[in-house]
Design a protein that fits this description.
Elements lengths: L1 H6 L4 H17 L21 H10 L2 H13 L3 H5 L6 E2 L4 E4 L8 E4 L2 H8 L16 H19 L9 H16 L2 H8 L4 H4 L1 H9 L8 E6 L2 H9 L3 E6 L2 E7 L1
Antiparallel strand pairs: 1-2, 2-3, 4-6, 5-6
Length: 252
């Protein structure tokens, strides 16, 4: 087996997975096994633009759109969103309770009015509060691939075909680090237990926003409660208040 792994033209990450499975197999046979060591290559994931994510959200059906909007706003894993029940949605508090999977931390995250409306519009036929909002992640993923292909063909954008559920998590982690430069905040947001899992977003952010790239902002001014709410829901950040006006900004 060692000779085969040494000769075969597999990536080191594939070889590392094969070694892990072989270890289990040899252990079940009570056979000694001194495994070779392979280090998986660190790959930079595909990072879509916000406009591309929004195209998929707006072009999908109601349930899929709500699912994708939650992925975008929370950066949660696909399975974590698929496991949501109606009791996890805090309509009054504008929050969602994420129950962790894969050894991550559970967390409570804010939601926009837009996301809450999209989710609550699905509830009209639901009788049981603890019922899951969505079907399992595998079924959602299969449905997503079908809708994604249709949207990509309609818009003539093949980049959309590279977007997966996890792309929303990569986008959220990268943009949050770009806005805050706080890797610990991104770690808590994504529920990582190990800071090493979060550091990939530092590398992606530096590649996407190289030193010297424009850090300009869109600026907006609000004078009413409704205008302030709309700006916050659109991702603008509060900066200051002066002369009865509230000033907000959002990175371009």
């Amino acid at each position: 087996m060692k000779a085969f792994l040494a000769r075969v033209k597999w990536r080191d990450s594939t070889k590392a997975n094969a070694v892990s499975m072989l270890e289990v197999w040899f252990r079940s046979l009570n056979m000694p096994w001194d495994p070779p060591t392979y280090e998986g290559e660190a790959e930079i994931p595909f990072l879509p633009t916000e406009e591309e994510l929004d195209c998929l959200i707006s072009g999908s059906g109601n349930k899929m759109s709500a699912y994708l909007q939650l992925l975008k706003e929370t950066g949660a894993r696909a399975g974590e969103i698929a496991n949501l029940t109606w009791t996890d949605i805090g309509t009054q508090q504008k929050t969602v309770r994420i129950k962790a999977e894969k050894g991550s931390y559970s967390r409570i995250l804010p939601l926009s009015t837009k996301a809450l409306d999209m989710v609550n519009n699905l509830q009209k036929h639901v009788q049981k509060p603890k019922q899951h909002i969505f079907v399992n992640a595998n079924n959602m993923r299969a449905n997503f691939f079908t809708q994604r292909k249709h949207i990509a063909e309609k818009l003539g954008n093949v980049r959309l075909l590279q977007i997966h559920f996890h792309s929303f998590r990569h986008w959220k982690g990268t943009t949050e680090y770009h806005k805050t430069k706080d890797v610990f905040w991104v770690k808590e947001l994504l529920g990582h237990k190990n800071l090493l899992s979060t550091q990939v977003y530092i590398h992606i952010e530096r590649a996407k926003y190289p030193k010297g790239a424009s850090d300009d902002f869109f600026s907006k001014v609000a004078s009413t409660k409704e205008e302030i709410t709309d700006l916050l829901d659109s991702g603008f950040e509060y900066v200051l208040q002066k002369d009865g006006l509230a000033y907000f900004r959002k990175r371009k």
